[in-house]
């Protein structure tokens, strides 16, 4: 797709300092900000069937107010949404200059891809167990705070390693990681992670960390001995009937994929990945993931005696509404959501262009309330 200049910088994105037009242009072309590796599409695209009864406007409640579908699309600055019910397309819209050919950034939805690839590597025998120490695959971490941290603790962000995820703070660990990505030096991010101090005993504290997913990506890369984008395409993306190649940010030219962000793909193809999760990691009758992986990955974890609504880089939704029972999300900043509800046989992919990375105020419609209303409307 031809690039629409000018684009913003990566720092401006994370600062949340963009006017609406340049923000949308940049989110369509994040693959232009850094070197990328291609995630090759399927040899033959598999059309998504169309639902005989498409989604109509509906009303739902959120935080004491009543809204409808059009309110949600406008108030939450939705730039694209696709809803699949029983495997069929019942609603598809493109906004803010997008079309069905457009690609859009995923941000932390890439974390779910990285964790899923860890599951594939376990299924393939490259990673032996969730209980393995990650230093077995990344010996460079043997003398770091990650020494003794298991694969399971890494995938659930319970390593105990200190990390500050504040996107808008130029001094945070997350922004230091971004600075290293901008510098494009091979191995610099893993080196940074190896120097972080330990803040808690491994397994005793949950702390959301994009750096943790870069370590997870490096672990998978070392275990399978091939680039993550190639492995993802071979095992999943090219087998889903995807329509277009996707792109994945690299930390340096021809280097390691950024495990926590940087996948850019089409709306329909993101939804196809959602169907893969809905179908428990089975493609055309073949199990790509270990049996029970998605069930385990989408369950809340218990850390330090407290329940945390996080799994293997997925977000369960147990407390918002009864209709979310068994449902989960992959989430990216600025309003990216891949919602999967197995009991309702429903997948919804939402692209967003919210003004700040972690934008929250009383005028924004809570996404979990919208998804509940969507499920009810299609039930």
From TrEMBL:
Gene3D superfamilies on file: DD-peptidase/beta-lactamase superfamily
Residue ranges of domain Beta-lactamase-related in the record: 83-357
Domain of life: Bacteria
One of the Pfam families matching this protein, by short name: Beta-lactamase
PANTHER family: BETA-LACTAMASE-RELATED, BLL8153 PROTEIN
Protein name per its UniProtKB record: CubicO group peptidase (Beta-lactamase class C family)
Species name: Paralcaligenes ureilyticus
